[in-house]
Amino acid sequence: MSFFDINKIIITPVGKSLKKISALNPITIHKKGTRAKAIFSLALVCLLWGTTWIASKEGVRYMPPLQMAGIRQLLGGLCYVLFFIAKGERWPQGKEWQSIFVLSFLNFLLANGLSTWALKYISSGLGAIIGVIFPLWLVLIGLFSVKSKMPGKAILGLLLGFGGVCVIFYHHLLDFLNGDFRFGILLSLGATWAWAFGTIYTKKHAANFNPYFSIGLQMVISGIALTGISYSSNNAIPLTAIPWQSWAAIAYLVIFGSVISFIAYLYALQNLSTEHASLYAYINPVVAVLLGWLIFSEKLTVFIAIGGIVTLLGVYLVNKAYKVPVATMPEAEGV
Questions:
Q1: Total-model pTM
Q2: Contact 67, 235 (CB under 8 A)
Q3: Alpha carbon distance 242, 50 (integer Å)
Q4: CB of 42 within 8 A of CB of 277?
Q5: pLDDT one-digit tens code per residue, 177-190
Q6: What separation, in Å, do the N-terminal and C-terminal C-alpha atoms of the chain show?
């Protein structure tokens, strides 16, 4: 093989690939165009929102989970609220508050509260995979509430989604003998049902009020409620007794999980197509599973890998069939 052939077959294609990758270099990204910055922002979202499951898992190891979720939501919500107050954004009026309270209950108090609580008993990777299946519940709800014919793509997605979950649980059959594991699975599934009903409610009661200001208010309301529930039920520890590991996890969730990643997400959403921006929802569980395996030595078997991929494929097909607004979700984990 001549040098010309080597250059044509190997060197040139590799060089082009490296050039594409170098466009996302974080050190020089400020010099690149809008699309390169948007792709880098989306990659940052995929990484950071995938790591929130790991941070939550670490936090609940040292303090009551609902107390941690309450503090995290309250601090994160205040960041959003103070930002929009500084911008002079108008406050919600009249019936707009009704939607905020309902979504605060469904999406944050229940969805995020239960999913955080579940991490006390199950792995972060398993929690992340279960957390992404909520569109499957939308299909089941639609079977009983919508008279129109179900798209074939949705049926296939439903079968693949639940088939993938069955493959994952096949590896955990013996774990179901453990009451704590069963409880964690039920909490995690309850969180996905709450998010599904929150999605339906949002679609039916969409308001003109700023949705991002609304998210901040929902987080503050839910944070206060969860903190109150924790203390009133004696499932809280004094703030001075919270170890540094949990405070570090909360700080990471607020700064990186709520503020930095959300700014990056909005930039990606503004400069990429909705379909491209929504890819984070399918990558986050993969990041959570891999990091859970690396950091916490969580199980990563062929069953979990294949089951997870099949589940994500099923969820993707359902989202395509029903155009579930994945890209409008602030975080796959529930916040």
A1: 0.80
A2: yes
A3: 24
A4: yes
A5: 888 989 999 999 99
A6: 56
